[in-house]
Amino acid sequence: MTLWLSAGILFTLLAIVFILAKWGNVQCVGVTPVRTFTFIAILFTSGLDVGLIMFPLTEFGGYADINASPEYAFTNPLAIEFGFWGFFIWSFYFLTCFYFCVIEPKVKFFEIPWVKFINNVVIIGTCAFTASLLLANLPWYLPSIGDGESIIPLFYLIVFAAIAFSVYSSTDIKYVRVLSVSTTWVFIGLIAFMWGSAFLWGDSAMGEYAQSVAMLGGYFGNIHEFIFPINDYHAFYLFWWFAWSIMIGQFTARFVGGLKTYQVLAAMLIFPSIPIALWFAVLHHYHDAGLDTTGIRNFAMVFVGIIFVINSLDSLIRLYSDNLNLTTKRLGKWRYMGFHFLALAALTLLFTFDFLQIQWVGALVIGLFFSCLGYIFYTKFKTVSNIDSSPKENRLDYKKIESVH
Which of 53, 149, 220, 256 is within CB 3.0–4.6 Å of 28 for a Cys-Cys bond? Predict the structure, then answer.
């Protein structure tokens, strides 16, 4: 599996270099273009899930224990956490976003029946994995509810309510802009709240947070260490990003609003990484200083984590329901909601019981990457070589999203 993963990463890097060399100045316009801030908000909130909020505090200690895991000794725990979530790995999303915006309309590889089937298996499986992460982490973050270890009925209720809300919001694309932009501001508010509660309320000094931020330089000074898997746990993360990449690319491609190719790459690498870095620095300071997160702080993190889950599921449900023609137009609103809720709730339980693994999903995506490349070489090489713009029918109309349902 590690060799397969490394081959997928190498392919991704080479493909990005080729895209920049051949189409670096092409203007990318999706079928429903939005302004740049909205595009970045959609990318950020759809491209991340509850793990961003809930994983770091549970992981810093493991990265710091270099006796048990000497492979982490090359830098500090904050830099490693950022390396698993920020900057370089967002290039996976760039590759698929550009492909679905500019190349797929000419190639139509994902319209081949067997490819469409696998693609939707990936999307649905990752939807359920996202919900299962929330369920698995609630006992740790809400120890005041239950014994801090067991998943009690209330936690199932919270997760199923998030699924239900996501299914409802996916019934109309007009909710995407509102949900994404508002979630972005809520996340920024969470960073400010956690920062303020630590530093303005007297728990610690400003200089200590500055020291945490400075530790992020350990990532950029060792970025080459993060390209290929450091160990099995890093491989898990990379497979997870591959699993997300193919569907986030499909979803975000429709919203690209006129940026040139190199600008899309820069936007995807830089803008999501800034709030991630600020957030991780706050959490690392809490961990390093031994600050208490129980009570209102944990509830705030869980609340934002649930909103991230809703955003992610909203975009993924919308994507696979369109692909499979299981839309509100075909099923009716209530049948649509009932079908998708029951399907995702059942699959979430399968991930919770370890019946499914996200690594399998990521491996499938890498297989799709190589299959797509082979298909282009054998049947669409000349077509792709002649591409010099986004599809002509995609017009830069920012008001279009208001009329699409």
Answer: 256
